[in-house]
Every structure is written in structure tokens, then in C-alpha cells.
Amino acid sequence: MKSRILLSVLFFFLVLSSNGQIQRCGTDEHQAALDLAFPELKKQRTALNEAADRLILENPEFKAGLVVTIPVVFHVLYTNTAQNIPDNRLFEQIDVLNKDYSRTNVDAINTRSMFLPVAANTQIQFCLAQRTPTGTATDGIVRVSYTGSFPNNPHTVSPEWDHTKYLNIYIGDLGGGLLGYANLPPGSTGNDHVVALYSAVGGPNVPGTISAYDLGRTITHEVGHWLNLQHTFNSGCVGTSANNCATSGDFICDTPPTANPAFGCPTNTPNTCTEVTPFPPPYTANMVDMYENYMDYTDDNCMNIFSLGQSTRMNAAITTLRSQLLTSLGCVPVGVNEILDPSFITISPTISNGKFEVQFNFPAATSVSLELMDMGGRKIYDSIQKIAYSSTINIDLSDKAEGVYMLRASTEKGFLVKRIVIVK
To answer: Which of 52, 206, 291, 302 could pair with 265 in a Cys bridge, judged by C-beta atoms 3.0 to 4.6 Å apart?
Structure first.
């Protein structure tokens, strides 16, 4: 039964191929098939999304507290030389991701003026993995030659690296005119990755080879899905009121409701939905469509913005649905800056009215730097402790607001990140 459901997605792609169409994204169809095949995973995602939504509601400008760097492993699956794209295209793609997610992309200047107040640096970055899940050195690139058509599940050709700690991006000839698709979080082993057409990988300096989609924005778009974003046109003109924009449509209030995807690069100012009440500043009723958003379907050279609301949703996903990314060693070269043994530092209790005891149990005397960040990314506490093997300190945060906080402890040997919660 599950195999038949998953094959229905492949059939959908083959129909597109017979029509000779370009399909910008297949995430909706792919995820719908997975939800049917694995209803228990859908229930888990729903529960975790509810937790993320509560976090967003309580922290409307949520950030993960520190810049999060996500390790990427590229799985290049090829049947011929053209599909086995060179390293420099992959390096360029990582550069595109980092610039798009930090809003340092050169075409950020093309964002229309009405959207500049909500343009976001997400504080999310990416690296080519420096070590494998087993701790050996790597360049973050896996190349596998195969025969036949692109696999419905590429995990069967090149196994995913630990999906909780790495972003697996599969690259190949997807067929059916499809540019890419992704799994929504939290995913499961073998079903948690981004997939992209080989000719759409690259960027301005080393472009891909498919016209209009050669600047790397396919992967920018699909990684957005992997971090829990929906299409800006999700469900059409629902969420047209400031009272329901966070619970319908794309669940984002600063991306104006949009009836349909935009293609090409519009030269006018389309407004496909009528908002019934004014949205939060800087918006007013009847805002035009944000077609330059990475989660729409426009050409690569037309995309240039993630919104603050999208940034909040992605960061909330990182600290809930994809929380193990926060302690991934994937970006750390072998032998350098190891994650500390969690037993070295114990916090008790982890949930309190603001008073916490931090116990250190190091194998030798050391110096520990402590930083405590709130969910807005603001540092609210820092100190340097000289620890002689074992000692205890108390942190009093009873004057701080309720919420989730992150404690980062660093030594010359490495670091450790732990979360605490204040409830009053």
C-alpha cells in the first residue's frame, strides 16, 4: 500500500513530463503522498507544529538565539557526465544559500519598497559537511553513478546521513520537468531531504544550465520547505484577515495572501487577494502580492526575499522540529572544537521560576565561558568561570520574562548548548 502511494507521486511527475511542462516544486504532492503512507509521522508533525506555533505566538520576533549553521551533504546521483556536476557548482550553491538566508544577496536591492520593512536576515547559514556521522573527515560531497530513471526515493541509491543532524540534498535528473521538492519537518529516516534538478544547481558566478532557473533559487526554495515554510500562495485567498493570517494560508502574516503562484518576473503589481482588514504595520488592506518571495514560483532572477515572519517560522522549526541541528558536529573539522560531553554540565531544574543551579564536572581544571540568550537573539547573561574539576554556580533570572532561553558553555576544548525554561 505504501509503495503504491509513493508511486503516485512519480506518476504525477511523469504526467508533467508528457505535457512538456516545467514544474517549479513538487513538495506539496510529495508530502501529501508521505502523509497518506505514514499517518503516524503526520500526527507527530502536527503536534510539533503546535509547539512551534505556541513559541511563535509568545515570541513574535523569534530567533534561534545564535546564528545556526546547518551542515549540508550533497548526494550527486548521475547517469552521465553532464549530470555529475563539478564541485564549483556545489560551492556556488552553498554561497547562494548563505547569501539568500542572510539577505546579503546582491539582488536584495530589487525588493520593492513596500516590503523592505519586513525583509529578513534569518540568521541561518550553511556549510559543506566537514565530518561524517561516524566522525571521519569529509568534503560533504557524495557522488554515485546509477542506471535507469531517477529513483522515487533517492535514499535507496545513496543513504541519507543522519537526517536529524544534516541537511541531505540530492541532485540528479528528476524527470517530468520537475525542478525540486523537499520533506517538511521533522521527517524520518529515508524520507527527510531536499531534491533538486542538476541543471538548476549553481549561482550567479557559476550558473546552472536551465534557462530562468540557473541561479540556485530552486534549492533556496526547497530548503525553505525543509525548514517548515509553505508556499506564499498556499490555499489561495485564505488568511485574508489579520485575525486568521497566522492560522491559515502560509501561516505567515507579513506575506500578503496570494491566490496563485507567479511565474516569470511580473512587470506590474499583481494583487490577487483582497485583505478584509488591515494587517500589522507596515501593511494596509489590499496589499499587492509579494512575488519576489523565495517561496513563490517566479524565475530565479526575480526572487530576493524571506520575510521576518518566515524567518521566525524557520527558526522556531530549528528549535522544535529540527532541534538536533543545534548540536550537530557536521560543520566542525575532525579534531577541532568538539561538542563537550553533556555530563560535564548539568542544569537543575531545567524549568523553574527563574533560579537555576549549574553544576560543572570537568576531568581537569578549566575556564568556562557562559552566554545566555533569549529567543530574540539578545544576550542577557555572560560570565567566565574558573572551574577546578567540580563546582556549582547559581544563576538568578527571576526578573526575566517567561520563555525559552539557551545557555552556551564554551571551553578551549569545545562547547555545549542547553535550553532552560522560565515559567511563573
So the answer is: 302
Determine contact, residues 319/122, Cβ cutoff 8 Å.
no
Q: Which three cell numbers stand for residue 19?
A: 505535457
From the candidates 222, 275, 292, 371, give the one annotated as an active-site residue: 222
Q: Bridge partners of 399?
A: none
CA 360 – CA 411 distance, rounded (Å): 12
Q: What is the pLDDT of residues 60-103, one digit of tens each?
A: 665 545 578 899 999 999 999 999 999 999 999 999 999 999 99
pTM of the model: 0.79
Residues linked to residue 367 through DSSP beta bridges, in sequence order = 386
Strand partners, 76: 143, 171
Kindly provide the b/e burial profile for residues 56-94, where b requires at least 16 CB atoms within 10 angstroms of the residue's own CB: beebeebbbbeebbbbbbbbbbbeeeebbbeeebbbbbb
Exposed, middle or buried: residue 414 (CB in 10 Å: 0-12, 13-18, 19+)?
middle
Tens of pLDDT, residue by residue over 270-287, are: 999 988 776 666 676 668
Q: Residue type for 123, please?
A: Q
**CB neighbours of 115 closer than 8 A, spacing ≥ 6?**
290, 292, 305, 307
Domain 338-422 falls in which CATH fold?
Immunoglobulin-like (2.60.40)
CA dihedral 89, 94, 97, 101 (to 10 degrees): -160
| Residue boundaries of the structural domains of the chain | 2-319, 338-422
What's the CA dihedral at 63, 67, 206, 261 to 10 degrees?
Answer: -10
Cβ–Cβ under 8 Å, residues 409 and 387: no
Separation between Cα atoms, residue 307 and residue 288, nearest integer Å: 15
C-alpha cell at 334: 575532525
Where helices occur in 197-321 by DSSP H, the ranges are: 217-226, 308-319
With the C-alpha atoms ordered 95, 97, 99, 102, is the resulting torsion angle positive or negative? negative
Q: For residue 27, what are the CA distances in angstroms to 24, 134, 226, 264?
A: 10, 30, 10, 20
**CA separation for the pair 408, 260 (Å, rounded):** 43
pLDDT category of residue 388 using cuts at 50, 70 and 90: confident
CATH number of this structure's domain 2-319: 3.40.390.10
Burial of 254 by CB count in 10 Å (0-12 exposed, 13-18 middle, 19+ buried)?
A: buried
For residue 405, the surrounding DSSP H or E stretch is strand 403-411
Active site residue 50: no
